[in-house]
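Proteins fold reproducibly. Take a tokenised chain:

. . .
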Amino acid sequence: MNQKNNVSNVSSSVKDILFIHGITSYGKAHLQIAKHLTKLGYRFHYFDLPGHGNKKWEWNDHKFKFTDMLNFIDDYIKINLKDKPFIIMGHSMGGGIALSTYPKYINQIKAVILECPLTPAIFNRSEEDGEFKIGDLFKNFARAKAIILKGWTKFKVGVCKWLGKDRCFAPLLTNIIKSDALNIISDGIKNIKVPTLLIVGSQDKVIPPIATSKYLSKYIKNITVQTAVSAGHNPFKDTPEQYQEFIIDFLKKVNR
């Protein structure tokens, strides 16, 4: 499969970073961090997933599924990173894809960077802080039902605002929520043994920051959690300097 990609031009001897963007986004949305890391000697791989960015026209012919995204990344790695060690990095849905990809390339992936990633914790919302605990179902079903419905409503409102006019992405989002995608992501998380950086936005209405941090920390022992204060679902855009600092400090520790 021939895939047109954008790769920062640096020496082939440095570490490769494979970046995967989120739903409705595109590769160049993270161009600022790509340029910054290139100056530090990293090779930053970025591209548009099927149905996104320059490939958005493809939505006219196909309603994409989460597995289509996984297959695309698999092909990209086989073509561009064959037998090379690399760091995998993903934002939102891209984080879920990165986590799902890890088990297959466990011998090549040396670190994981996650920015507001999609995980099963997406539904963990409570009355107090926007997150609920599944355990409440066994203690007080009526209260838990109210919390879940309230949390689900918040989630849907947040997602609708997030998608905006890009309703063509709804089939992919529906597939992620209703298919085995979250189970695939969960399996990936439980396999991770390498250093992992998690960046969450304190004001994120799409991916619950507290539940996501707790969920990933439960399974990934070598994890560094950083909270982008005042940032929403896009720390790379909301607090770019803080975001870059988190990543650079992490990479220094990984490559020391």
